[in-house]
């Protein structure tokens, strides 16, 4: 009978609100653990200056049930920390899920919407390409298009409305071709076989440009195929630009639906649309540069090695891999 009364008293005591002294002690413990190494944390908790109760006990379930029973206000800094900790303790979040910072184009966005503006922008890009050719460098342009989607059955999506082209981290051209059309200068750039246009599903984008504007986009390289060549030894994977961005540079490519599925045929693009379009083209260019630095996987295709050996004798010590730079 006496033991039962003691147990009842103990349970009743556990359901009582913490005293101010106990709350300060718990908050001090949380702060000490989060800001110190494990060794220093133990010393700090065991120091004589710590006046927290020496009797250990479980946190009563009553303090987790609702904020109504919590004997402190939400705007108290120490209490807020404790509340957040308790919420995280009870949550069932996947700790393996990583939150990456977002990638965003930080250079100058050159927006053109009239025929004369697009022509001028295209000539600037042609000069950029010619300068690269003189330097003997690899000429690569991140390439992407946007169009107005449709949400009605039987209604075709809009024509290719926006074309974004990026050749470095400093400038990105966003051209509103639904209003300007494709002038001869831009056609020359798109049809240039020495200038590689890269992107995920870039072939599909090129087909749409040809279907909508009767202009061919030459010299294409799909980033998903390149990633499978560089990264995957077995079955190929269908990469998205977002998954490549997370895998290779540990950043998230923002794809808000209100922008991605918005109206790209408006009279003038918003700042958010311009940033979205420029970031996509920049990410394509940048991911290509990253992938090209990866070595090709070891030769596991004996037929290819034999073909290369037959076509050109190998120098002493030369590798028998057919690596295209």
TrEMBL record:
Which parts of the sequence are annotated with region: Disordered? Answer: 32-77
Arranged from A to Z, the UniProt key words for this protein are:
Exonuclease, Hydrolase, Magnesium, Metal-binding, Nuclease, Nucleus
Q: Which parts of the chain span the membrane according to its record?
A: none
The record's annotation in InterPro entries points to: 3'-5'_exonuclease_dom (IPR002562), 3-5_Exonuclease_domain (IPR051132), RNaseH-like_sf (IPR012337), RNaseH_sf (IPR036397)
Q: Which GO terms describe its biological process?
A: nucleobase-containing compound metabolic process
Q: What is its main location?
A: nucleus
MF terms (GO), sorted A to Z: 3'-5' exonuclease activity; metal ion binding; nucleic acid binding
A Pfam family for this UniProt protein?
Answer: DNA_pol_A_exo1
Question: How is this protein named in the record?
Answer: 3'-5' exonuclease
């Amino acid at each position: 009978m006496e033991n039962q009364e003691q147990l009842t008293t103990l349970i009743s005591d556990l359901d009582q609100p913490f005293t101010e002294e106990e709350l300060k002690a718990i908050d001090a413990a949380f702060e000490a653990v989060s800001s110190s190494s494990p060794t220093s944390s133990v010393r700090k908790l065991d120091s004589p200056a710590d006046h927290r109760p020496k009797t250990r006990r479980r946190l009563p379930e009553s303090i987790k049930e609702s904020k109504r029973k919590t004997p402190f206000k939400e705007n108290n800094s120490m209490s807020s920390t404790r509340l957040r900790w308790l919420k995280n303790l009870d949550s069932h979040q996947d700790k393996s899920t990583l939150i990456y910072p977002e990638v965003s184009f930080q250079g100058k966005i050159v927006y053109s919407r009239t025929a004369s503006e697009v022509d001028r922008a295209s000539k600037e890009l042609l000069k950029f390409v010619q300068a690269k050719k003189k330097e003997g460098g690899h000429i690569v342009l991140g390439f992407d298009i946007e169009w107005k989607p449709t949400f009605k059955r039987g209604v075709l999506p809009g024509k290719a409305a926006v074309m974004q082209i990026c050749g470095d981290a400093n400038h990105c051209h966003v051209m509103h071709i639904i209003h300007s059309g494709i002038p001869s200068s831009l056609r020359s750039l798109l049809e240039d076989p020495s200038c590689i246009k890269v992107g995920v599903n870039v072939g599909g984008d090129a087909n749409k440009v040809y279907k909508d504007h009767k202009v061919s986009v030459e010299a294409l390289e799909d980033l998903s195929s390149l990633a499978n060549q560089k990264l995957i030894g077995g079955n190929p994977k269908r990469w998205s630009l977002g998954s490549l961005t997370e895998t290779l540079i540990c950043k998230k490519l923002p794809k808000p639906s209100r922008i991605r599925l918005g109206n790209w045929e408006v009279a003038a693009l918003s700042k958010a649309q311009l940033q979205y379009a420029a970031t996509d083209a920049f990410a394509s260019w940048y991911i290509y540069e990253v992938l090209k630095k990866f070595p090709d996987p070891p030769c596991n295709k004996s037929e290819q090695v034999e073909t290369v050996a037959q076509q050109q004798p190998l120098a002493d010590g030369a590798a028998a891999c057919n690596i295209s730079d």
